[in-house]
Amino acid sequence: MKVAKDLIGSLIFLDRKSANIRDFDLSRICNSLNIARDNAVTALRRLHSVLFFPRVKDIGETRPRFYHTSFRDFLEDPSRSNEYLINVKECRSALFWGSQALADATLCCGLNKHPYTASIDYLIVISSANLVVLAQQ
């Protein structure tokens, strides 16, 4: 349940911030949260009635979205969601620091080891855009 809650919290945060799917696809979210993509898909698949999964060749290149905003509201309301409560601020922090750690590791260890970087310019643009979106509240 923790994997699903971390992912859903990140999806809620990114959805509220209108973050570009290309900058924060499922693969990037999983990498930032240190969650294996297969585990993420398994955890989210059970929520197919409330999450929309775009039909694409690679699910990692897109991001699931909520069918209804009322489900997001339910998950953030402690009086209604009880054990299913999602703390979006905690998820935002985890996503922010995970993205920062990925950027740091890429700069320290070399660009060829990170799947999202083709050049140093690309890394700086993507990393900066991600951190700016995540840093805003």
**Percent range of helical residues:** 55-70%
Number of domains: 1
Radius of gyration: 15 Å
Major sheet: 2 strands, antiparallel
Average pLDDT across residues? Answer: 77
The end-to-end span amounts to 26 Å
The structural class is mainly alpha
Number of β-strand runs: 2
Number of helices, where a helix is a run of at least 4 consecutive DSSP H or I residues: 7
Strand content: under 5%
Specify the overall morphology.
Answer: globular
Order of helices and strands: HHHEEHHHH
Low-confidence stretches are 113-126
Main sheet: which strands, in order across? 1-2
Topology:
Elements (H helix, E strand, L loop, with lengths): L1 H15 L9 H8 L3 H9 L5 E2 L12 E2 L2 H8 L1 H4 L6 H22 L10 H16 L2
Antiparallel strand pairs: 1-2
Helix pairs in contact: 1-3, 1-6, 2-6, 6-7
Give an overview of the whole structure.
With 137 residues, the protein is mainly alpha-helical. The longest helix is centred in the last third of the chain and has 22 residues, at 88-109. Strands 1-2 form a two-stranded antiparallel ribbon. Helices cover 60% and strands 3% of the residues. It has one domain (2-135). The protein has seven helices and two strands; from the N terminus they run H-H-H-E-E-H-H-H-H.
